[in-house]
Amino acid sequence: MHEFLLAVCKWLESTSAARVTRESLWVYPFVQLIHFTGLSLWVGTIAIVDLRFLGLAGRRQPAAQFAEQFIPWTWTGFCIGVLGGGLLFSSAASTFLVNPAFEIKFLLVLLGLACHIVVQRKAGKWGGATEIPIVAKLATFTELALWIGVIVAAVEIPNH
Amino acid sequence: MHDWLLSFCQWLEHASLIEAVDNSTWLYPAIEATHFFSLFMLVGTIAFVDLRVLGLAGRGQTVGEIAEQLFPWTWISLGLAVVTGFFMFGSEATAFFDSGYFRIKLLVIVAGVVVAGIIQRKARGWGQSPAIPAGAKVAALVSLLLWIGVILAATEVANHANV
């Protein structure tokens, strides 16, 4: 399995997109910009909805409606973030493959993504009730924790 | 002024609180992660209001209503970003002080904050007029560009850090 993944990583590194990202003085920061801009939309919109369900933000509107308005830009942010992240990963794929911080980050991303899909699908039901149910608070708290975890792991990547 | 700032930076690098943070295995990454998280919330909330002004998001509510809900978190995030940023700055104060990219980053942040403040003040009025004025859309576009600029400057600071 590891051999297979390593082969995929080596192939990714050899693509021209990866090479340009790695070698060009201005493309690399631009790719980082894409990654972080996408993440700002993704994490920012997710977090504000979580804060709403945790009772800390935007109480003017019912929670379900509040959450719904962010959905298109949340996923736009996700796609932009993945695009940037994919290029960054490709530029040095085989080193990231064996980096424990990156492995944890990627695992948390998958968990966080699954958690977000649950939250988004349930938001209508959870946010329509007169009082936000406990399960909703648990789920949104977990989502926040997972994505903060992703950031902590990401910050540690250069250290390994 | 320059000399005074430089000596302040030299003092700061060796201040016990800054050194304690820098030497801690867990505190510095925690501060760094908080800085990134608050950055995402800061830019995310500002960007969503800007997108609403541009008519591209959240059209179920007026600009004023959205701004009212999001801006408190914009300012909380800014506060968090500044505090955590200060600790990160402090640990390598003289190096950051010398960095042209860092100075640009600070300048663009100030500009972005000023524009955000203007948008916040004007948002309710814009939301109450039948159509959002062209000037508002210009402001929103400028705001988006400025904060993208902040992110770019920040990545360049990190890329050129001789840490």
How would you sum up this structure, described in words?
- The complex is a heterodimer of chains A (160) and B (163).
- Chain A has 160 residues and is an all-alpha fold.
- Helix content of chain A is 82%, strand content 0%.
- In chain A, helix 7 (100-128) runs antiparallel to helix 8.
- Chain A has eight helices and no strands.
- Chain A has one domain.
- With 163 residues, chain B is mostly helical.
- Chain B has helices spanning 2-13, 16-23, 27-53, 63-91, 93-98, 100-128, 134-159.
- In chain B, helix 6 runs antiparallel to helix 7 (134-159).
- Chain B is elongated.
- At the A-B interface, helix 3, helix 4, helix 5 and helix 8 of A face helix 3, helix 4 and helix 7 of B.
Order of helices and strands of chain B: HHHHHHH
Measured as a percent range, the helix fraction of chain A is over 70%
User: How many structural domains does the protein architecture of chain A include?
Assistant: 1
Task: Classify the beta-strand content of chain B into a percent band.
Answer: under 5%
Please give the oligomerization state of what you see. heterodimer
Let me know the average pLDDT of chain B: 93
Individual helix count of chain B: 7
Largest sheet of chain B: none
**Which blocks of ≥5 consecutive residues of chain B have pLDDT under 50?**
none
Radius of gyration of chain B: 18 Å
Q: Distance N terminus to C terminus of chain B?
A: 26 Å
Order of H and E elements of chain A: HHHHHHHH
Q: How much of the sequence of chain A is in beta strands?
A: under 5%
* Structure classification of chain A: mainly alpha
- Radius of gyration of chain A, rounded? 18 Å
Q: Which term fits the overall shape of chain A?
A: elongated
The tally of strands of chain B reads 0
| Main sheet summary of chain A | none
Give the end-to-end Cα distance of chain A, rounded to a whole number of Å: 22 Å
